[in-house]
């Protein structure tokens, strides 16, 4: 309510801050409203008074708004307060805490406010020495380990150059955040891997926030306005509106966050205060406190803030006469927040038959159809994009040089080595730089291969096939840069071992000795630039299809946390980067993929990589498949055995395949022709010339020579059908990327590609089950996950409206399993399937699951159908076999 005050009764309100801050638009909006209330005489001190005159000569006031900024003499202002004792909106002594990030965290921790886990490395005199150990993918501070990604902040809060270091598994590198310069707020440095050592720094665990930060502006203990913005860690591009302002969206605070706002306000004694929230894993954490801050360009906030400041001061000077609606609200103890008008844009009246997309859903398991309308399933399911050929080498090793890597380890457990630190076994290089350390570690394995090949080892070169494989190991490790990053993997699986029986069980296992192991090297499979572009193009198309005419609305929903978007990926590097490239296009981001991957994509190996439950079934199927394809007879006369499901694509493949042995002999002849032509090309090529993705002619020749050697074992005179998919993969890759540059008649040529394609069209789908029962059994033994109930609200006008989207990126095997689930699941005795007859026939005709194949599930709510009626909800399921490569023939 308005209080009629005479000029003599007005409160003298001083504003002691630098002119630049006082004259800002936000501050002017609040001051204008305070003046209009006619309750105050506003006294602005001004720069000349604050800087040039002593505190004794500053104007006298009853209430004071004062806050520090660049150039502000905080100590002089504190002297003034001690001299005149005005009523303070923001405590000045407490503002000193805001200059030190460690002190800010200490105050927050004492107040019970959630903060990220952190440690400090001091490099200042008088501070305790910090024991710091830096590893490839971690830093250890006084015994506390911070795995990458982690955040590095200067202790000095005035230094805004904050760094985020990424693990090698995500591509490595570092993003440096800084105060906005034009449209940039961060920059990514792909080769920067080591922490800074020039001053004191605070290190904290990285919290994945789905790429959005929340800025909270509290005014008093019981009022807070919150806005979301794109995190500068994602791509560093500042989103601005037509007036050049950074785009931010109001968000609703949770009950916990409102309590946090109260605690920050109280703990720092700042009546007007801004701080940063990170929402991660269902919790909220404060990562920074900024002191005096006002929202920019929000008239409703200016009304509320000025009203609260007015009431706060008048309650101090006129407590009996002052009352108002906001005062009663504050006395009730219920925190206030932004009104719903700021949270939504009202839309036109909806037609009676309106239906609304409620969520984008998917599942890797067959579930009863009624579950579709009661649960929020996870994700549209995608295969990764175009990649370089995957390559693998397996070799049984018995040499002590290899087996010594098991020393001190449990001999029953395999060694998986993906990073330099996992390969490290020599203390002599512990102090070496990370890049040099990685070189030495791979050099050790390379030296083992060289030593064994020289004949000084323990007999690994006794057999011709082992000699060939040692040569391959040597060549692979000599490739250096091609065998690195998130695509490298080395495994040593124990095959035979002995134990020392005089130890207890646990000690016995640890002290045992491995006698024979399987060495597995995997490389290649890198996402290409084309694969990245394919993922981005698909995401942009899906955004317009899933949200027609609402592309900007989708981005707004995501920024306001009402778009519940989660993106999951397996641990394979190509899958991770596909997910990141898709996310980049879907949310219209810019910059390098590593920050996007770390900020927005969640690795879920248990859900997306694990196939252990089906491993025995898969092995059994592969044994039977080898028997079928080992027959020297025409399989067209044995369709009931070869294709018990009678699927159209498989029947067509068998009709082309005919006698498998004859077909394999033709295929082998074509492979020999390819390697012969490549040898001729290599002889006339410049060794430094590269073709697609940095590969040289020599490396391409080695790739095809390995396929020729692996496909047919001359000593055993047997074909290895497991290499058929690899041959087809390489043929497709080179025909798409290298054919025009090499100008070879048969590389891979239509004959090789088509012939191998027919065989692969049969083998690949059958690896996931030959009979209908096997296909369903393997498909349903995929990883399981919890389903969560959907919570619907009162249509799109509600500020509680939530759009749920899940995208799940995985490998080809999971897509095949999912195809089988939806192709063969029957829900009742009438043999009703998920798809109608036309769709079932289409599924059966699909011969290949290509890159970026996908299932998309859309759940709709129909408003024209009464609540409680099963027809109120419907599910639209769509499938695409992925990128079309037919044109390359």
TrEMBL record:
Residue ranges of every copy of the ATP-grasp domain listed in the record: 105-318
SUPFAM superfamilies (alphabetical): Glutathione synthetase ATP-binding domain-like, Phosphoglycerate mutase-like
Keyword Nucleotide-binding included in the entry's annotation: yes
Record keywords, A-Z: ATP-binding, Cytoplasm, Cytoskeleton, Kinase, Nucleotide-binding, Phosphoprotein, Transferase
Subcellular location: Cytoplasm, Cytoskeleton; Cytoplasm, Cytosol
EC number of the protein: 2.7.4.24
Biological process annotations from GO: inositol metabolic process; inositol phosphate biosynthetic process
GO CC term, one of those recorded: cytosol
Stored InterPro entries: ATP-grasp (IPR011761), His_Pase_clade-2 (IPR000560), His_Pase_VIP1 (IPR037446), His_PPase_superfam (IPR029033), VIP1_N (IPR040557)
Entries under PANTHER family matching the protein: DIPHOSPHOINOSITOL PENTAKISPHOSPHATE KINASE, INOSITOL HEXAKISPHOSPHATE AND DIPHOSPHOINOSITOL-PENTAKISPHOSPHATE KINASE
Stated name of the protein: Inositol hexakisphosphate and diphosphoinositol-pentakisphosphate kinase
Species the sequence originates in: Zophobas morio
